[in-house]
Amino acid sequence: MYVVAGATGNTGKIVAARLLEEGKEVRAWVRSEAKGGELAAKGAELAIVDLEDSASVEAGLAGAKAAYLLLPPAMGAEDMLALQAERAERLVAAAEKVGLEHIVVLSSIGAQHPDGTGPIRALHDFEQRIAAAGIPHSFVRAAYFQENWGSVLPVAAQDGVLPQMLGDAGRAIPMVATKDIGETAAKALLDGPQGVIELEGPERYSPADTAAAAGELLGKSVATVDVPFEAQEAQLQSFGISADVAALFREMNEGIARGHVDFDGTGTHVRGEQPLKATLATLS
């Protein structure tokens, strides 16, 4: 039995689908049975798991051989790192109790650092807890999600500008499509513990490259507009993100800009297949 958390999300749905295609028994963690209908039709067992409840998490992992786990976003949290630490603690305690043989984690580029990475600090903590418990693992340290640009594509379509918060608009950074994350995580589940996997897309892109690709898709000129670091927290809060989370995202963006949020070369480096323009085409 394989457990897939976030089984209807961008990465989890890919993991679950791949395992089912391989004829594996899958327990899909979903928010509601209605949302998991397609997976159930393909043979998955559905489970509604409350990450804030230890008994629910343990029941969700009971009988499993391996699991794909993640810490879901908490954009409105007053103390996001504390919330995610509590979730991580419950997940690891349950994994130990049920004797899980392998955990594949959706982690992040930069998760090797304990600080200076904003919300990625929660994933550093999660990785450390799993390693300390001695549970065999694969940490998929994924690059910046190509899909992150989806939130500003409407601005590009309307105004011909692409707001960006990553510093130098001409600096290329690792990015990856969630499809490639899901495929990589599924492969790790099937192959067994891999340690650290550093995952990025087929090439690196800058915000300027992203604007150019968006312009090609939209059939119009698109230019980047820099959002200064000192203005980012207020802008993020205007979108409904809590002050705590907004401050963490500013920290992450500053870490990306100065090269702190990057791979350190200690893991297996893997490149996905999907180029940025193909991802933007699915979002526009």
Describe this structure as you would to a colleague.
- This protein is 43% helix and 17% strand.
- It is α/β, with parallel strands linked by helices.
- The chain has a single domain, classed as Rossmann fold (3-Layer(aba) Sandwich), CATH 3.40.50.
- The strands form three sheets. Strands 3-2-1-4-5-6-10-12 form an eight-stranded parallel β-sheet, with helices on both faces.
- Helix 1 (12-21) packs across helix 7 (178-191).
- The longest helix has 19 residues, at 80-98.
What descriptors fit this protein?
about 280 residues; alpha/beta; Rossmann fold; eight-stranded parallel β-sheet; two-stranded parallel sheet; globular
- Biggest β-sheet: strands ordered side by side in the sheet: 3-2-1-4-5-6-10-12
Biggest β-sheet description: 8 strands, parallel
**Overall 3D form:** globular
Give the termini distance in whole angstroms.
Answer: 37 Å
Helix vs. strand class:
alpha/beta
DSSP E strands, number: 12
In the CATH hierarchy, what is the class?
Answer: Alpha Beta
The CATH topology, please?
Rossmann fold
| Low-confidence runs | none
State the order of secondary-structure elements, H for helix, E for strand: EHEHEHEHEHEEHEEHEHEHHEH
Strand content: 15-25%
Instruction: Count up the helices.
Output: 11
* Structural domains: how many: 1
Q: In angstroms, what is the radius of gyration?
A: 19 Å
Tell me the name of the CATH homologous superfamily.
NAD(P)-binding Rossmann-like Domain
Share in helix: 40-55%
- What is the CATH architecture descriptor? 3-Layer(aba) Sandwich
Average pLDDT, rounded to a whole number, is 97
